């Protein structure tokens, strides 16, 4: 029997909420290079307005993922073993950086727990991922079969659920 074992060196997390950012931190703790993507914001913050930025500005377009990484520094318990590990996380957005998912060995979907939203993101991922890339969903209750419905054969063969659990001290 031939082993198909391949090391996972580059990961991507789609969804930079509390869970997605913590997953990115855990992967960075394990020594991986991580791409963290989220949607493009649909409105400016008051600070962005004061600075004269627009929704087309790259700093605005990737704000959600960038701010999520910045919040890792103050989260308790600290999700990063060493604060410098934040440098292993690159941020972006789904509109501009989707094609970069092709470089990932493992792609973790961590968007809102709604079947329609997850399926839409998984369809985007299926369109750009490498055929051998692992894709996992961080769902706690949705059907994996329903999430994989309509996806390519190689996607379905490399698709699984991986539920991460995080703790926060408030």
UniProtKB/TrEMBL annotation:
Domain of life: Bacteria
Matches recorded under Gene3D superfamilies: NAD(P)-binding Rossmann-like Domain (3.40.50.720)
SUPFAM superfamilies per UniProt: NAD(P)-binding Rossmann-fold domains
All copies of domain 3-hydroxyacyl-CoA dehydrogenase NAD binding, residue ranges: 11-164
Similarity comment: Belongs to the 3-hydroxyacyl-CoA dehydrogenase family.
The protein's name: 3-hydroxyacyl-CoA dehydrogenase NAD binding domain-containing protein
Species of provenance: Paenibacillus cisolokensis
Upper lineage: Bacteria, Bacillati, Bacillota, Bacilli, Bacillales
């Amino acid at each position: 029997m031939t082993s198909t074992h391949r090391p996972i060196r580059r990961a991507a997390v789609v969804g930079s909420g509390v869970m997605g950012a913590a997953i990115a931190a855990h992967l960075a703790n394990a020594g991986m290079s991580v791409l963290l993507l989220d949607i493009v914001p649909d409105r400016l913050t008051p600070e962005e307005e004061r600075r004269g930025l627009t929704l087309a500005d790259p700093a605005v377009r990737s704000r959600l993922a960038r701010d999520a990484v910045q919040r890792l520094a103050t989260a308790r318990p600290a999700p990063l073993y060493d604060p410098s590990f934040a440098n292993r996380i690159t941020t972006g957005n789904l509109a501009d950086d989707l094609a970069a998912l092709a470089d990932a060995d493992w792609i973790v979907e961590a968007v809102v727990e709604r079947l329609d939203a997850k399926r839409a993101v998984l369809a985007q991922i299926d369109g750009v991922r490498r055929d051998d890339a692992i894709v996992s969903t961080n769902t706690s209750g949705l059907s994996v079969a329903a999430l994989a419905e309509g996806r390519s054969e190689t996607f379905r063969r490399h698709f699984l659920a991986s539920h991460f659990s995080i703790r926060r001290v408030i």
